[in-house]
Specification:
Helix content is about 30%, strand content about 10%. It has about 120 residues and is an alpha+beta fold.
Length: about 120
Amino acid sequence: MLEGKDLLEKAKLLSKQSEDEIAKGCGYVGPSGRILRKSFYRALIEAKGYKIGNGRQGKNGNKASRGRQTEFKTKVHGNGNLLIGHAYTKKLGLEPGQEFKIDIKKESKTICLIPLT
């Protein structure tokens, strides 16, 4: 992700593109391909010399954002799907395309994912 002078120069070069394309071109894309608009806009504002706070205090009194936090819970959606999410697959080091066998234990209502080799 570009910052400072580099960010301003690249954004200016891409200024005829859409905002999303400018953000992508400057590297503000998450691991899932989602555009990180808030981070992009904050970086632009700071690159122009404005200091902005986010209202949270991190370690040592620094202002810091916690970002998304991993909570080890989920729920069954209305369509019956059960979503695990990127934070958990990343924590286990799982890669896109990896395949698993689903093992269901009815007595304990437990679902296990068993990697296929």
